[in-house]
Amino acid sequence: xxxxSFTKPGRLHLKNGEKNQDxxxxxxxxxxxxxxxxxxxxxxxxxxxxxxxxxxxTARMFYEQFYDLLLxxxxxxxxKICAVLQPALRAFAKQQGVEPEALAATLIVFxxxxxxxxxxxxLGDGCILMQPSGAEAAAFSTxxxxxxxIAPHSxxxxxxxxxxxxxxxYRSLRPVRGKFLLLTDGADDLLRSKLPKDRLLxxxxxxxxxxxxxxxxxxxxxxAAIVTIS
Length: 230
Fold this sequence. Notes:
This protein is of the alpha+beta class. The protein has seven helices and ten strands. The strands form two sheets. The chain has a five-stranded antiparallel β-sheet with strand order 1-10-9-6-7. Strand 4 (107-113) and strand 5 (118-123) form a beta hairpin. Helix 2 (47-64) runs antiparallel to helix 4. It is globular and about 50 Å long.
């Protein structure tokens, strides 16, 4: 198993002297891997802090509990994620003297073992894509697409939505070989072509994805993690 990842601030935050709101954290050993991305809501006062908490707590949970979570039904996985994240974020909000809603962020997490069995969860925008072994260089299939909220140009965020209703969970107990790509919306908006819809605008490769995105000078923060199971 291999993992290539990056997270970078977009032009808007660089211009304003602000920090990257995207966060990324992963854990890898000989037999399994877990990686998590989160995009802190820029309009929430503590979106970045929420993203920092989310990636660490969720990646550790998916890594340490992977074999149990893999066999759980989706609702049980949702309950376990909520049981870890929501008390931690509420406690942090209390410590900071803010409302829990100030800790708003997306969640994209992926874990797999060396046989190719995987489990992932997704809340909000961004996406999870997959390219099976032997596919064309830019081809992909979608595991999880961005979720749109009730209002235009909105999405579902931690502490601002019913996570049991909107947190999507996917798994495969059958070993799968290929590449798995996690993208925050800043990267997703620039990588997937409109037509055909199942093609990236560059090869499904970590260094080439990073180089392509850098050349686009994205306005928004952009992050990606690509896990290869061969």
